[in-house]
């Protein structure tokens, strides 16, 4: 099996963004683009890519992500929904769902808000909601007495940056969940944490984005040794564990053998359109990971993911040997050119 390196979020959606690649070192990726055989594929989300490379897992997405959190295992009692803090931003004539990112809750604010919110939810929904927790200021979970089976939620990565009115819960039980979301917004608006953030001119926590009740559909894949960054998203961690793969986490390329490497440092910055963080992630990926992989792996497959396109690069020894000759007859591909093509 040829090792596959998955790079979600690498294809920034706006090639004309000011200062996108100015002074940004990424020599390994440029060499790979110059020599690799390139194949354009249909765009797919990070979740769809995880399904393709990790295969089926017999748990809903919320349970998988909670399993992948660093601090604790998933609670034994109840059924989980992801309940992630979001800001609702007025943009012209619509309300947009926004992930706060670096402007989100501090650990102190999260610690002050979560217990009170959990108690209030248990009070207004006795026998339905068992509690709420924030595992980090960016990620939270509702614990339910019964699974949320008659409602469809939009995952946060699909909702981020889009209009709220097209993302509300759908299905037979949607009305109850929409009512809960409205009550949550009122409670959060009045909480002292948000009052203080408004006083300081900071973005407020306006709602919890509920999602993750569906179980991912995927075709079976062989057992795989999966290499990930030590900051790998907990959904990928939990998914790899539940699917029975051997997951190894590291801060940089340490020479580990692998079948699939999940290098997702650019995924969240790209999704949130945080250009500064995206540039930092690309520099780190090229220096700490791609350079080492280039030196020790003569053959590999790269999967570059973005909102509008996916691109597969196949790197082989023969293409590397012919690279100088190829440059005589055509202009080498670059990341700038690739971003122009995939942003259209």
Describe this structure in words.
It is a single chain. With 344 residues, this protein is of the alpha/beta class. It has two domains: 4-57 and 217-342; 65-211, no CATH class. The protein has 13 helices and twelve strands. The protein has helices at residues 27-35, 46-54, 61-67, 107-124, 156-159, 174-190, 192-200, 234-242, 267-271, 275-296, 317-321, 323-329, 335-342; strands at residues 4-11, 37-41, 79-91, 94-98, 129-136, 139-144, 207-211, 225-229, 246-250, 260-262, 300-306, 310-315. The model has no long low-confidence stretch (mean pLDDT 90).
List keywords for this structure.
344 residues, 12 strands, globular, 2 domains, 13 helices
State Rg: 21 Å
Q: Major β-sheet, in short?
A: 7 strands, mixed
How far apart the termini lie comes to: 33 Å
Question: What order do the SSEs take from the amino end to the carboxyl end, as H and E?
Answer: EHEHHEEHEEHHHEEHEEHHEEHHH
Low-confidence stretches: none
Task: Count the domains.
Answer: 2
Mean pLDDT: 90
Shape: globular
Strand proportion: 15-25%
Q: How many β-strand runs?
A: 12
Helix content: 25-40%
Structural class: alpha/beta
Strand order of the largest sheet: 2-12-11-1-10-8-9
Number of distinct helices: 13
